[in-house]
Structure formats: structure tokens, C-alpha cells
Design goal:
The protein contains 6 helices and no strands. The chain has 192 residues and is mostly helical.
Length: 192
């Protein structure tokens, strides 16, 4: 039931992001010259590296899910013996990659504000910060979820299906956030 509820909730989140995409395309169609000037200020290689960081976090997240499904919460070998890592270690790595993504995005925001692209500067700034900002908030929510799942794994006397289900539905959310970012990245940074 938890998995089904999560998928239904993610469907509503999909509608939320669809509305943000509609806003972005509507404003872009109304002011194509503004988009050409302002989008030239984006640092595409920098954003691409940040995208690779976020996408790689989906792989580490899935490794954690595999360990959760095996009911293996923590590592049984040495720290650098990745084959023996448990869910916690993979989720901590996922958390760190997600935190790097949010930090780099915040740095990108400061650089864009320095170049005159702010939330209140024009339609481009508003749409850019609203779409990427709401995505960033969703990433931050996912980071909190990872901390809760990791904490639950340490608190549980016996790591069982209840804890594993929490890890699995958290991964649904994380993968959703990653797919949304791939779409945002393609539209904002590449679509001309």
C-alpha cells in the first residue's frame, strides 16, 4: 500500500512540474529575444557536471535499495570494500551527492545574480528560478527523507520489511526528482 500511495502522490508532483514547464514555455514563447540573451549567461558545462552528480546519485540510491531488499542495513566488510556495503553506506553516499548538487546549484544562483539574472529581474529570471528552485526544494526534501531512512536503520533492532519499504519508496521519490531534473536540464540549458 505504501508503494501505491507513493506512486499516486508522485503523479500529483508530476502535474505540479508539468504546470511549471507550461509556465516556462509560455513565457519563453512570449519573449524569445529575452530568452536568447539571458540563456547565454548560463554556464552549461558547469551545469552538466552538476547533472552528472545528481544522476550518479540515482545509481548509488538504487544500490542502497538492493541492499535494503536483501535486508542488509550496514556494511559487513571494510569501508572501501563496496561489495560489502549495506543500505546505510549507499544512502549516505547518495545524500552527499544530493547535497553537492544543491550546493552547486546555490553557487550557480549567486553567479547568475552577479550577471544580472535574478528572480525579479524579468520573465526569464522568474521562470528559471521558479522551475529550478522548486526542483531544488524537492531535492532537499529527498535529502531529509534519506536522513530519516538512515536514522530508522540505526534505531531498528531488526532491520525488516518495514524499514526496507521506507528505503524503496524513498528511492521512488529520488528517481522521480532525478528524471525531472534531466527534463529541466534539457529544456533550460539545451533547448534553443
Amino acid at each position: 500500500m505504501v508503494s501505491v500511495g507513493t506512486v499516486v502522490w508522485l503523479s500529483s508532483e508530476l502535474m505540479f512540474f508539468a504546470a511549471l514547464f507550461a509556465m516556462y514555455f509560455t513565457l519563453r514563447a512570449a519573449a524569445p529575444d529575452l530568452w536568447a540573451v539571458e540563456s547565454a549567461k548560463l554556464n552549461v558545462p558547469f551545469a552538466l557536471i552538476n547533472t552528472i552528480v545528481l544522476v550518479s546519485s540515482s545509481f548509488t540510491c538504487q544500490m542502497g535499495v538492493f541492499r535494503a531488499e536483501d535486508l542488509k542495513p550496514r556494511r559487513t566488510g571494510g569501508l572501501f570494500n563496496f561489495k560489502e556495503w549495506g543500505m546505510v553506506e549507499w544512502f549516505i553516499l547518495t545524500f552527499l551527492l544530493g547535497a553537492i548538487f544543491v550546493s552547486v546549484q546555490a553557487y550557480e544562483y549567486t553567479e547568475l545574480v552577479h550577471h544580472g539574472v535574478a528572480l525579479n529581474s524579468n520573465a526569464y529570471g522568474s521562470s528559471f528560478y521558479m522551475t529550478t528552485g522548486f526542483h531544488g526544494l524537492h531535492v532537499a526534501g529527498g535529502l531529509i527523507a534519506f536522513l530519516l531512512v538512515i536514522g530508522r536503520a540505526y534505531i531498528a533492532r531488526n532491520f525488516g520489511h518495514f524499514e526496507a519499504t521506507s528505503a524503496i519508496v524513498t528511492s521512488y521519490y529520488w528517481h522521480f526528482v532525478d528524471v525531472v531534473w534531466i527534463a529541466l536540464f534539457a529544456i533550460i540549458y539545451f533547448l534553443k
